[in-house]
């Protein structure tokens, strides 16, 4: 079976699912650029638990874990089947690596999972398991999770980290209130994005895990860390060195970046897929 890359996607606001944007257009073509996975393991920034937890139900619900958005978003469903078998397989790999892992048969898919997958694989016919983040732990912990799960890539599983390359919602709201939401990227967000890109291009996973102390504007880019941890997981699962597939900025400071690990062939295929979106 062909080895799949691991991916990191910035999922943005839930409106990415329905409103035109460069990021939406890119994600809509990304699924066509990949070999078809037998299953998808998605680490979502919005699934927060004390220890790594996997959805293990056969038919997880679509969770609308947001408020005040257009009504059409609340009517969307992503009825992909779950995979109790993949959940068990992933839990076993985590335990073999010395990590605690639990299964939750009742948990559903939050918008960190179903928004990008609705665009990438709209048929919702590929089994999906969602994996949690631990916001009280550090980046190295999440890289350890990704490293433990790397063998799944050789078994036809697409490992998908879903978060945000930058995620300061207070800054986003301030720009919107000032009527400045349509401008180009602000300097601090672009500086942080360039630093991350350099680490990923060189395969410096250790440096990426130390971003809080090394990266410019790290705390401003991530006042809380849960939206960057899926990047550490995806990078570690894919060997550390990656390729940027897409970059755009929403509201000036929300970087909608997508990475693949490893990713040269994926980038070429994604560029071809984007031509027909």
Question: What can you see in these coordinates?
Answer:
The protein is an alpha/beta fold and 277 residues long. The chain has one domain (6-274): LigB-like (Protocatechuate 4,5-dioxygenase, Chain B), CATH 3.40.830.10. It has twelve helices and ten strands. The protein has helices spanning 22-30, 71-74, 84-96, 111-120, 139-149, 169-177, 187-202, 205-209, 211-214, 218-221, 229-237, 264-274; strands at residues 6-10, 39-48, 53-55, 102-104, 128-133, 157-163, 243-246, 249-250, 254-255, 258-261. The strands form three sheets. A six-stranded mixed beta sheet has the order 5-2-6-1-10-7, sandwiched between helices. A two-stranded parallel sheet has the order 3-4. Helix 5 (139-149) packs parallel to helix 11. It is globular. The model has no long low-confidence stretch (mean pLDDT 93).
């Amino acid at each position: 079976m062909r080895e799949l890359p691991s991916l990191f996607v910035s999922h943005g606001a839930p409106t990415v699912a329905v409103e035109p944007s460069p990021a939406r257009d890119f994600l809509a073509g990304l699924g066509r650029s990949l070999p078809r996975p037998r299953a998808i393991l998605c680490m979502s920034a919005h699934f927060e638990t004390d220890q790594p937890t996997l959805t293990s139900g056969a038919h997880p619900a679509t969770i609308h874990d947001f408020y005040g958005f257009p009504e059409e978003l609340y009517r969307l469903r992503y009825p992909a089947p779950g995979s109790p078998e993949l959940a068990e397989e992933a839990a076993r790999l985590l335990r073999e690596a010395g990590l605690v892992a639990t299964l939750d048969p009742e948990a559903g898919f939050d918008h960190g999972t179903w928004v990008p997958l609705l665009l990438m694989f709209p048929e919702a016919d590929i089994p999906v398991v969602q994996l949690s983040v631990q916001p009280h732990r550090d980046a190295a912990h999440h890289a350890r999770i990704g490293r433990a799960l790397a063998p799944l890539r050789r078994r036809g599983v697409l490992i998908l980290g879903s978060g945000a390359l930058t995620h300061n919602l207070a800054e986003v709201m301030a720009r919107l209130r000032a009527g400045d939401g349509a401008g180009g990227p602000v300097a601090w967000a672009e500086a942080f994005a360039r630093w991350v890109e350099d680490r990923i291009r060189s395969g410096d996973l250790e440096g990426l895990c130390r971003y809080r102390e090394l990266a410019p504007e790290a705390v401003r880019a991530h006042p809380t860390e849960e939206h960057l941890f899926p990047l550490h997981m995806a990078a570690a699962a894919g060997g550390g060195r990656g390729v940027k597939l897409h970059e755009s900025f929403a509201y000036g400071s929300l970087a909608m970046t997508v990475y693949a690990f490893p990713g040269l062939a994926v980038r070429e295929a994604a560029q071809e897929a984007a031509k027909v979106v």
